[in-house]
Write a structure and sequence with these properties.
- This protein is an all-alpha fold.
- The protein has two domains: 75 residues, ACP-like (Non-ribosomal Peptide Synthetase Peptidyl Carrier Protein, Chain A, Orthogonal Bundle); 75 residues, Orthogonal Bundle (Non-ribosomal Peptide Synthetase Peptidyl Carrier Protein, Chain A), CATH 1.10.1200.
- The chain has six helices and no strands.
- Helix 1 crosses helix 3, helix 4 crosses helix 5 and helix 4 packs across helix 6.
- 21% of the residues are buried.
Length: 179
């Protein structure tokens, strides 16, 4: 009888090292972290945040199941799945777009899946949250938005909102197409 070698992959090893920083008692990628008492509800939340930060992924709470964090291998599978789902945040080249996404996440507690997601059709924005968003944009970016001059269509995507902020921040006459 031939024994098969234990296969490891860099992602599992990296997750294992991260989990061991929480508890050095994690012997293998298959150790049941819950049954072994290594993870409780509070440490699970801390580990979730550490995984998101370390691997630059966003794991929506609706995707978090207890079994997703049962073993190092399961956590690695979750990270792999989130990485293959594509970037949750806009590309780093557009820092303003990132700031708009952060505003949604941190001030409105909403994660926008894509810069081109229709915020109204997705139910992220309605008339009340639009007013709240306008006030947040004015505060965060030092803008003064006149309701008469607002085009609601510009608020349909975070890319449109970032473009609007860019235009309003531009020096007078540079982006202003009015006569």
């Amino acid at each position: 009888m031939q024994l098969s070698p234990i296969l490891t992959e860099p992602l599992v090893d990296e997750v294992h090292a991260l989990v061991r920083s929480f508890s050095p008692n994690v012997e293998s990628a298959q150790t049941d972290l819950l049954a072994a008492g290594i993870l409780d509800s509070a440490s699970l939340v801390r580990l979730l945040f550490a995984v998101e930060a370390h691997f630059a992924v966003t794991i929506p709470m609706e995707e978090v199941e207890i079994d997703s964090f049962r073993t190092v291998a399961e956590i690695a599978g979750l990270v792999r799945a989130r990485r293959s789902a594509g970037p949750a945040r806009p590309p780093k080249e557009d820092t303003l777009l990132g700031e708009v996404h952060d505003l949604f996440l941190n001030s409105l507690s909403v994660e926008v899946p894509s810069p081109h997601e229709d915020l109204f059709k997705a139910g992220i924005l309605d008339s009340m949250t639009l007013v709240q968003l306008i006030m947040l944009l004015e505060s965060q970016f030092g803008l003064s938005l006149s309701l008469e001059d607002l085009d609601v269509a510009a608020f349909s995507t975070t890319a449109g909102i970032a473009q609007l902020v860019r235009q309003l921040r531009a020096p007078a006459g540079r982006c202003d197409e009015r006569p």
